[in-house]
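Re: that chain you flagged

S.,

Sorry for the slow reply, it's been a week of failed gels. I finally had a moment to sit down with the sequence you sent. For the record, here it is as I used it:
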Amino acid sequence: MNIKISFLIVLAIGLFACKKDKVNEKAQVEIRLTDDPCDCQQVNIDLQSIQVKTDADTSHWFTLTTNTGIYDLLQFQNIDTTVATGFLPFDNLMEVRLILGPQNTVMVDSIIYDLQTPSAQSSGLKVKINKQLGISLNTFVLDFDAGESVKSVGNGKYMLDPVIKLK
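Prediction finished late last night. Pasting the structure tokens below so you have them in one place:
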């Protein structure tokens, strides 16, 4: 009888320890960018930060380790590049947002114009994901459609109205 009780206690401790370890584990996440063709010669975004939101805490944004800099989206046609990585709790990845700086430009007919990015510098460009994170590397490719995203608003002014899809 004592052997059975001892066995059950050891089993319970083992199960509790395994469950506790799972809570502390993190899922590795990688965010990549790619692009579709555009009539422009360049579409440069000033990437400052990439943040994500999970089901675990819908009021909190996790900031990933971001490869900040100015990216010409047209260089990503038919390829993709890693722009951010990090570790998150095992959960649903709900949303990704790209925070842009002020150095966004577009080149049309060999002339560089400022690219207006309303709200991209404060609330960011948001993409809905809603995918369960797994144990292995979770790679998400964001297809930034520059041809659909860059709009001429007249008088040599251009605005970024982002069309970003999860690939």
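What I noticed first: The longest helix spans residues 2-24.

Talk soon,
D.
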